[in-house]
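Data follows
____________
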Amino acid sequence: MMRYVSALGRLWKSYSIPVRSPVTFSFVTGRSGFSSRSQTVLVHNITKHFRNPNFWQTGGCFLLSFSLFDLWHVNEKVPEEDRVKRLVYEARKSQKDGELLKCEKYYHEALSVVIQRHQNKEIDDNELLQARTYLFDCLANLSFSLNEFDKAEKLYKETIKGCVQAGMPTNGNVILEISLKLANIYAIEDRSEEAILGFEFCINTLREKLKEGEKKEEVKKEESKKEDEWEELYKDTEALLGMCLDSYGRYLLRLSDYDKAEKMLSDSFCIAKKCLGDTHRQTLVIMTNLGVANIFKKNYAFAEQLILQAIKIGEDIDAEEISALYCNLGAVYLAQMQMEKAHEACLKGMASAQRNNDSIAVKKAKTCLQKVTDHRNEKVQVSASQAQS
């Protein structure tokens, strides 16, 4: 079970906010600490998050490589004579080392070898289709990492086409996973209509699958056939829904649709707790984002409660998100004009950011502290003016 949760955590993280980049609230000028403009700006900008190469590198084509394409999933060194697998191994190693252009070269070489083997009748049409589809998915993830979004989009669509040709159902988790990647590309490129349609297609389809699954589960339990296999598929589907809700919730924050964003993030948070546990780092990140949604909605009491809970968990597991959490807590207090508490929270955020060499969090902590200083100076000036009059 622990191995399953660990793998699921890696999968979830590959489609969600990087562990070093939780969403933090934006500080701007204004008596309350926030202007109307601040309601639409995030410090760790969601677009920047989507563009982060680590977003896609942490798990790569996880669902593909652990389902239909087990043959091509290579984590260990392979013999020189198995050239395709060897090239895939070298590509994955290069990607892990951050040598993305070298990685792309290996994948293209592997694709050429596969095509040549098919021409030489060493592999059949089905084997060619499986290999090409897997390699297209890997190249698509890589193109995303290189910010080549047009190329990534085309490759993901080719991957879906290959999956369908291989007999996968159009509502299968593999195809829905790739559809989520496409929705994220549309979000990056500000193609909001396509992004919203993509996210909602994934979410609605997965919810329907889970409803159908609950009905089938009753039958499966009665028949006592393949119960473990069915439960694992159900959990995978539920986890994928959690990832879709998380991604869509953060995108809705960017679109300033705070009510809907809160609903999506709240549902994702519930699934994360169920699938990953209360103290998993990805659960912590979603809790942080849910807190931000409530700051935007001016639900300060609930936001404070969430962030304090997240801080406690973060300190227990020594999470790097602590600096951002303290900055968000400072934002809650600033919005309520609780300057002493804001000062204390942002000082803790600064200390944590400096320990973790998090330059973004350092900058935000400084901004928070400056807001407190500005407010104090303003109060002194008002008092002096009143004394003179």
Remarks:
- The two ends are 72 Å apart (CA to CA).
- The domain at 69-167 is CATH 1.25.40 (Serine Threonine Protein Phosphatase 5, Tetratricopeptide repeat).
- Confidence is low (pLDDT under 50) at residues 1-21, 26-73.
- Residues 192-223 form the longest helix (32 residues).
